Amino acid sequence: MSVLLFGLVGMLLGSFLALATERYSLANNYREWLRYLLSPASHCAHCLHQLRWRELIPGISWLLLRGKCRYCSQPLPFTLLLLEYISSLLLVVQYWLIAGLEMQLWMGSYTLMLLLLADIDRRYGVLPDILTLPFLWAGLIFHSLHNQLTAVDAIAGATVGYLAFAFLAEGWQIVRGSSGMGYGDVKLFAALGAWHGWALLPEIALLAAGLGIAGTLAISFFHKAKRNVMFSRQPFGPYLAVAGWIIMFIKF
């Protein structure tokens, strides 16, 4: 029963994350974005028709509608369904790996924040401060309450993570004369340092780099303009998020 509950909650939260990602593009600032999370009511992005409750059932409505709006027949984003099921799957995996309700809540927040950051960076190429900075502070607070790491390790992780990626970003700018890494990636790596400590940062960075190479090769394989994909700038946030999640549940 608990597994089913976690799966259902994961789908509901995944649906909310999809809404948050979708409405991020509508806002000019963070206050507008937070307001857009509450209104207007969910509607089709093409015909603007307000959706009814039976068209908003996470994990089911998209399938029943066959991926199309029932009013204008325009396709609904497949990523909506994918995010709902990924969120559900991750929370179920977490349920099996972690004991204790309080720890479940902490790790669930960790997982969902990484998922939201990865989806926003994938779509818009940005990792907003309104998410990365609270994520960093949450890591420091978590360790201060549960002593998984010492405060020194957590603070050192945030500091080393920030400085390491900032050095790479600035070094690339000086050598190549172009931006190779955004400071959103720098802040996300610092946040992962706060959650994991400085000692695990090399593993996270190497794993993220490996995932990034594999992901770029996979995308270029299925993309017509292969050369353009190989040499274009790809968002690194999703790979950092996946690496952080994997390391968390391997080392937990």
From TrEMBL:
Its EC number is 2.1.1.-, 3.4.23.43. The keyword ATP-binding does not apply. Residues 8-96 form the Prepilin peptidase A24 N-terminal domain. The chain crosses the membrane at residues 124-145, 151-169, 204-222, 234-250. It is found in: Cell inner membrane; Cell membrane. This is Prepilin leader peptidase/N-methyltransferase. Belongs to the peptidase A24 family. It catalyses: Typically cleaves a -Gly-|-Phe- bond to release an N-terminal, basic peptide of 5-8 residues from type IV prepilin, and then N-methylates the new N-terminal amino group, the methyl donor being S-adenosyl-L-methionine. One of its GO terms (cellular component) is plasma membrane. Plays an essential role in type IV pili and type II pseudopili formation by proteolytically removing the leader sequence from substrate proteins and subsequently monomethylating the alpha-amino group of the newly exposed N-terminal phenylalanine. Its main location: membrane. Residues 111-214 form the Prepilin type IV endopeptidase peptidase domain. One of its GO terms (molecular function) is aspartic-type endopeptidase activity. InterPro entries: Peptidase_A24A_bac, Prepilin_IV_endopep_pep, Prepilin_pept_A24_N, Prepilin_peptidase/N-MTase. It comes from Duffyella gerundensis.
